[in-house]
Automatic annotation (TrEMBL):
Transmembrane segments: none annotated. Residues 5-60 form the HTH deoR-type domain. It comes from the Bacteria. This is DeoR family transcriptional regulator.
Length: 261
């Protein structure tokens, strides 16, 4: 069997991906370590977003492991730039806007660096880094517990900060989005926060490239308000967009340069 913490955790991930559910006792016997060692492994892996733990010490590994923000930065780069350019053009002078954590919202923050008389609140480290030198943008960090994998803040402190503000527009990211269930994410902390973001905002935009349409990689969902706007790129197939249009969602398809089609 694998020796060393890293090798053991990699083996646990592979085992859980094929068996679906594994108990602490079974893992302890398989890897010839104590149950407390396995529990530490599982706690660290859960914190990193590699698996979800269930009652009684069992674990369930998602068949689609969550990608880190670093990994997502290289995905659909041109599509995200186009989506961000369109989104930035919707924001008006004097508005207060809310940016979710994520790579596409980070690209939107990049577009806003030259803005004036704008207030931007965010839960994302990428957006904060982009706006750190933007002298004419008032930046509010919502704080909370840092979720390292997604480089975003979640938890009760972030939720409390949200409750003290309202927003003209909220721009949300997603690991997947469907017309019926809304935004799909790896954790309930993320989806609860996104629901609160939507409730505190007059207009809600979900920014996703085409590959995320209709995807259900995880089991945590954020319900969206009756009226919201889906913003995606021109690689989106008509069949993928049809359920959103049928549900009366405002759909914006963006081509190169941020021009809506």
């Amino acid at each position: 069997m694998p020796r060393g913490t890293k090798a053991r955790r990699e083996a646990i991930a592979r085992l859980a991906a094929t068996s679906g559910l594994t108990s602490v006792r079974e893992l302890s016997a398989t890897f010839k370590v104590t149950p407390s060692t396995i529990r530490r492994d599982l706690a660290q892996m859960e914190s990193a977003g590699e698996l979800a733990r269930t009652y009684g010490g069992a674990i369930a590994l998602n068949a689609h492991p969550e990608a880190s923000l670093r990994q997502r930065l290289g995905e659909a780069f041109e599509a995200k730039r186009a989506i961000a350019a369109w989104a930035a053009a919707q924001i008006r002078t004097g508005e207060t806007v809310l940016l979710d954590a994520g790579s596409t919202t980070g690209a939107l923050a990049h577009e806003l660096r030259g803005a004036r008389e704008l207030t931007v609140a965010t839960t994302g480290l990428t957006a904060l880094e982009e706006l750190a030198g933007a002298e004419h943008v008032h930046v509010e960090c919502l704080g909370g517990t840092l979720r390292h994998l997604s480089a975003g803040f979640v938890g009760p402190l972030a939720e409390a900060a949200l409750s003290r503000m309202t927003f003209d527009r909220a721009f949300l990211g997603a690991d997947g989005v469907t017309a019926d269930d809304g935004i799909c994410e790896a954790s309930l902390q993320q989806t609860r926060l996104k629901e609160l973001m939507a409730r505190r905002s007059e207009r809600v935009y979900v920014l996703v490239h085409a590959a995320k349409l209709g995807r259900r990689p995880f089991h945590a969902w954020a319900r969206l308000p009756a009226r919201w706007t889906l913003v995606t790129d021109d690689q989106a197939e008509p069949a993928a967009l049809a359920p959103f249009r049928a549900a009366d969602v405002d759909v914006v398809v963006v081509g190169p340069g941020g021009t809506a089609r």
